[in-house]
């Protein structure tokens, strides 16, 4: 495995842990608060023509982490899935608790989740501080892969935005996270740089991701 492929594969495993471990997608008939979710969640028409948009649907009663690969080992322990655990530990369950969707550009695969309950932003910030520098491992016998978690300053002071970067040799790969409470609801998102020439609309990271996260948070604040 080349260094570039190893770094991409490792970061993809970390990303998948978050994508599949944090959300409880809406199922069944939309009722309050499910009806409110449907009102505020961004739809395909909110994105430029050519952008891929798909809703994520999970089976009723599906537990956190179903179908995801095991979390990678890390030092400090738990950093490879720390954000996942923070959100899952305080999650509300059941139909109408959350909606997830995927937005695809050439250069970005973005997963957004809208929640009917607030995030513990203090806990997430503390986790980011604890995991500001850590190592992750494909196998305990292999050398650790350095990771950094860095907060980005944005025009939205109440939002937590992080860049998580993996370095393998001279190659770096980054994912971006955004967490924000919006009134009685919350929005979080994650993006991984994914080239896809079949999509005609290109993304610029992290700008495209931050614009979508802000638009979704603003929509969630609507009465």
What can you see in these coordinates?
With 223 residues, the protein is an alpha+beta fold. The chain has a single domain (3-220), classed as Protein Transport Mog1p, Chain A (3-Layer(aba) Sandwich). 26% of the residues lie in helices and 29% in strands. It has five helices and nine strands. The protein has helices at residues 3-21, 34-40, 82-89, 121-130, 207-220; strands at residues 52-56, 73-75, 98-105, 108-115, 133-137, 145-151, 160-168, 171-182, 185-192. A nine-stranded antiparallel beta sheet has the order 1-3-4-9-8-7-6-5-2, with helices on both faces. A hairpin with a 2-residue loop joins strand 3 and strand 4 (108-115). Helix 3 packs antiparallel against helix 4. The chain is globular and about 50 Å long. The N and C termini lie far apart (51 Å). Residues 19-31 have low confidence and may be disordered.
